[in-house]
Amino acid sequence: MFVHAEDPLTAVGLEAALKSRPEVTLVGKDNITACTVAVAAVEAFSDATVRALRAVSSRGCSRMVLVTDGLAEERLLEVAAMGVCAALPRAEATACQLVQLIVGATAGQGSLPAALPGRLLAHAGRVQRKAPSAVREQPTGLSEREMRVLQLVSEGYDTREIARRLSYSERTVKSALHDITSRYRLKNRSQAVAYALREGLI
C-alpha cells in the first residue's frame, strides 16, 4: 500500500494509522508495483491534484482508494479512469474502514458512496448528449452480456450481486470483466466503466 496526501501531516497521520495493521504493508514510491493499492487523501480536485494522482497511477498503481469530500461531478469519469475503485468521505476514514477498502481493492472489488454511481451515470449521460451523433452511433464492440455486466458495475453492484441479478455464475461475470479490461487494455473495473461511459458503450 502506498499513501499519497497533499500535505505531509496528513500523509504521516495515514501512515501511522495503517502501518500497525497486519493486513497491509506500506511501501515507498520507489517500490510501487501493479499490485500496490494507493490511498490518496485530497481536499478538492484541482488540476494540480489530478496531475498528482495521474503521476501515482502512472507509477504502476492500478487501484486507488480515495479519501475526500471534494469530488466534483465533472471529475467523475477522469477519477474513475485513474483507477479509483473505492472512495470514502474524510469524516468516515477510520483505520478499520480504510483497511477494509484496501483489502477489497487488492481483491479487485470496489466500494463507492451510494450516490456516486448515479452521479457518474448522470454525468456520462450529459456528456453523451453533447457528443456528435456520429460518435454516439459507432459500434460498441461489446457483447450484450458484457454491456449488461458493465451497466450493473456502473450502478455499484458487486460480482455476486451482478451474478444473481443476471442469473450468471460469478465466474461468468469475472470472465466478462476480464475480457473487457484485456481488450481495451484497462487496469480494473472502474476504468472499464469510465471508458465505456466516455465512449458511449453503455
Automatic annotation (TrEMBL):
Q: Which residues form the HTH luxR-type domain?
A: 135-200
Q: What is this protein called?
A: Response regulator transcription factor
Which SMART domains does this UniProt record tie to the protein?
A: HTH_LUXR
Q: What Gene3D superfamilies has UniProt attached to this entry?
A: Winged helix-like DNA-binding domain superfamily/Winged helix DNA-binding domain
What GO MF terms are annotated?
DNA binding
Kindly state which keywords UniProt assigns to this record, in alphabetical order: DNA-binding, Transcription, Transcription regulation
CDD domains membership: LuxR_C_like
Q: Which GO terms describe its biological process?
A: regulation of DNA-templated transcription
Tell me the InterPro entries matching this sequence: Sig_transdc_resp-reg_C-effctor, Tscrpt_reg_LuxR_C, WH-like_DNA-bd_sf
Q: Does the keyword S-adenosyl-L-methionine apply?
A: no
